[in-house]
Structure formats: C-alpha cells, structure tokens
Design goal:
By secondary structure, the chain is of the alpha+beta class. It has one domain: PK beta-barrel domain-like (M1 Pyruvate Kinase, Domain 3, Beta Barrel). About 25% of the residues lie in helices and about 30% in strands. It contains six helices and twelve strands. It has a seven-stranded mixed beta barrel. A two-stranded antiparallel sheet has the order 2-3. A two-stranded antiparallel ribbon has the order 5-11. The longest helix has 10 residues. The mean pLDDT is about 90.
C-alpha cells in the first residue's frame, strides 16, 4: 500500500500580516501542531480562513502542499522556506501533481480524504514572501498543491502517514486541471474529460462548464 510521510500538520487563524504593501488580513501564517488534532468536514480544529469567499468550505477543507517542492523554491529564490511557508494544512513528501488525480482517496489517521481540485496560487503568497512573481512561477511550473474534502471525520496525528486508499479510475490529474485552467484553456475535449469526474469540486465544475 502506497504511503507518504507527513512532514507537518498546520493550522492558523486570520491575523494582520505586515507586508511591503501594507497590512494584510490572512490566515496564511499557520503554525505546526505537535499533538493529535480533530479534522471535521470543514477544517482542522483551530484552522480558519480570512477570505471565506475564495477559501474554505467542504471542497477545500484541507490544503496539501508537496514537501519536495520546498527544495525547488529554495534553490529558485536562494532562501529558506520553513514548513508551512505556503499556508498549507498538510506538508507531505512524495505526492506529485502529475500523479495525484481528482477523486483519489487517502487515509490519514482516523480520517478519509478525497482530492477535489488544484490550489490556485494567489497574491497572498506573493505578499507574504515579498516575491511578486511567485504565484506566476507556481502556475508555470505546475507546483500548485491541491485541496481535499473530508469523507470521514476523525483525529489525526503529525506522526500519521498519508495512505493511498484508492485511485480514481478516470485518472484526471491535478496537472491536467491546471493545464486546462492556465495553458490549454480552449481544449474542450480536456474540459469534458475533467467534468466527467464526480469528485470534482463544485466551484471548478461551474467554471469549466462556462467554457462549453
């Protein structure tokens, strides 16, 4: 059974973050937890969103970012990025946007999770780190991370492994969805293939349906 090492579980509340362009209210300043924590359908205990229009909700209950991408960004910018620099809840080693598919199911502690959509890097990451081109580079390189919904609630521990329970048979990867959104926007055949995945997040589904 395929399993991945969880490098960090992190949560946070909205705070006023001082940036070069002034204060920014955001929950991107998450802190690692060291003890077992409850995960509900909406979030980890103690985790909240400042912008609930674009973040949070059942389809975005958990944000995951691959730990190996940190090495890439540290080389790119010649600086250190400690976990969880990119505001994710789960920092996991070895998962890859080119292999993880919408609808894939995972076990984490007592919980069961389902992949729903890519993360869309936004200006908040840029302002947090003072790197204007950061979101664009994340999109260009496909190093976006992704969201999961909670199928089964429960308690998880930072010591737990993320265990792959089942692969979605359609194998529409996170990278496939990113390609349609950012690089191959008019490819209706790809859009249709993505729309056929039942686990696809409702917001992404609505956006793609407008392309048809």
């Amino acid at each position: 059974m395929t399993h991945f090492n969880v490098e960090a579980i992190s949560v946070g509340k909205p705070v006023n973050l001082e940036t070069e362009k002034g204060p920014l209210k955001t929950a991107i300043q998450k802190q690692r937890v060291e003890e077992p924590i409850r995960l509900s359908k909406l979030n980890f205990t103690g985790d909240y969103q400042a912008d609930q229009k674009h973040h949070g909700g059942p389809d975005k209950a958990v944000c995951l970012y691959p730990a190996q991408h940190y090495r890439h960004w540290e080389e790119e910018y010649q600086r250190e990025f400690p976990y969880p620099s990119f505001g994710e809840n789960l920092t996991v080693n070895g998962v890859d946007e080119r292999e993880i598919a919408i609808g894939d199911r995972f076990i984490l502690g007592e919980t069961e999770l389902e992949v729903t959509e890519p993360r869309k890097p936004c200006y908040i990451i840029a302002r947090k780190h003072g790197l204007v081109d950061f979101p664009v580079k994340m999109i260009e390189k496909g190093l976006s991370g992704f969201y999961l919904r909670v199928i089964k609630e429960g308690t998880v521990s930072p010591k737990d492994k993320l265990i792959l329970k089942q692969k979605d048979p359609r194998q529409v990867t996170i990278d496939d969805v990113n390609e349609v959104f950012f690089h191959d926007k008019d490819n209706k055949a790809k859009v249709l293939r993505i729309l056929e995945v039942p686990a696809l997040a409702a917001g992404v589904k609505a956006s793609l349906q407008q392309k048809m």
